[in-house]
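yo

u said u wanted the structure for the complex thing, so here. seqs first:
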Amino acid sequence: MSSGILQFVTVFVLAAFVGYEVISKVPSILHTPLMSGTNAIHGIILLGAILTCGASHGPLQITLGIIVVILATLNVVGGFVVTDRMLEMFKAKPAARDAGKGSQPA
Amino acid sequence: MSLGTGRDIVYLVAAVCFILAMKGLSSPKRARAGNLLGAAGMIVAIAITFTTPGIHNLWAIGLGMVVGIAVGAPVARRVKMTAMPQLVAAFNGVGGAAAALVSIMHFSFSPVSLSTFATYQVFEVIFGVVVGSISFTGSIIAFSKLQEIMPGRPITYPAQQPVNAVVALGIVGCIVAVLVDPTKIVMLVVLVLALLFGVAFTLPVGGADAPVLIALLNSFTGLAVAATGFTLHSNVLIVAGTLVGASGMLLTRLMSQAMGRSIPNILFSAFGSVVTSSGATEKEGRSVKSGTPEDIGVLLAYSNRVAIVPGYGLAVAQAQHVARELAETLQKRGVDVFYAIHPVAGRMPGHMNVLLAEANVPYEELKEMDHANSEMSTVDVALVVGANDVVNPAAKNSPGSPIYGMPIIEVSLAKAVIFLKRSMRPGFAGIDNDLLYDDKTTMLFGDAKDSLTKLVSAVASA
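structre next:
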């Protein structure tokens, strides 16, 4: 029992260090997409929602279960779609680059 | 290999996907691929969960997911770029609510007696409930401020800090009580207090600081999800939740640094309530110079170097395309044009980069603040489009000002400054801007898009 919890604590501590290190060099222009992207990742709560809803009995529990699944699905879908839309804007668009070029500063 | 082991391996793969996704999101080149990798990891993790033994109510799960997708996808697809910040707050809030509900249901509907819960198990549950609930109601307030359902100004009332402290102490007290003797009634009290606290601690945060607030709440939701991972004995929930929790804390700090402020300052100082004490009291009777689009068009057309400084007004007016058009018209005449980007211009860091990229502005014409400032003295005209706080010299000159210490784009170094503004109203932070009254400043009042359109034709005919 206590060795079980210790194993989870180990995972928790290591993940905390990874989470801190992995984004330590993010440029400021990516702050917003990164926030939105990590927002999508905590949508993994959908997994917990599925397990909870799947273990429910009776109308009250199942109703709450459905609500949890809806909320978690919103988090996942909304998070990834919004992030993708933000990042779409960063695409290089070579066709549009010629417009202002070619002229020399006076 | 048993199905259980196989499932755990898939969860491990998903956890690796999330880490790589965040790594990708930290670099402009790989960001989009990173996000897609994260989504792939999510889909795989969710799909394999259905193979868990003892999952019932598949119809209910399916129904919930269909509703969630049917509502979430169109909203996320169609919402305007200017409304993105509040949308992130909203999706964060529902995540927090889901985490809190999972914890509550695990506790309330447990088939075994509550007294058989080990103390650490009760703690995992209560942590998830408290942090998830704070994130939920806090996100609702952040959403309402950004959506302007409620005023963006800090909302304060007498004895606010002591009241918040009492609520916080109440939460801590209830947690201790639940740990000693787990009862549902105390659990209910702590739930209500946590929901209340989420509202109470976000009300005094100004709308301009909402991005930092959302980053913090995002981190909270991550921690709440990690707590449910402990409760449900799921490594992938712990890993994903903790990754978000830890990176969110760092991101919150990075964002507040970009605004030149500390996190406690943002959360507790009720931004804007000290405005009158700033050196901006004796401005009655000072005159403001306003120009016609034609005058300003000529000024722009005959300069050598123009810096465009965009702000939230550009986003509101959806003027990014016209701004590019003006830049191109000037460039055709041989004027050197660049965009000076303040890291927190708009309502979120990177907001301006996203908008201008949408309008196909070449990446190399965007200059980050430090670079832009070092070139500002060679600029003939600084054209400030719907920005105010990020160019306010009070941040440098008046120690009493609430934005004192925030780095700014130093447009006053340019030979002339033009402000495109809707009115003389102060910016989002509620602080007056002395630069508007400066001799080298010319105002052009109106909606940013209209004003820019007029300038384009004025430059073309100059």
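The beta strands of chain B are 305-310, 336-341, 366-368, 381-385, 416-421, 441-445. The longest strand of chain B covers residues 305-310.
cya
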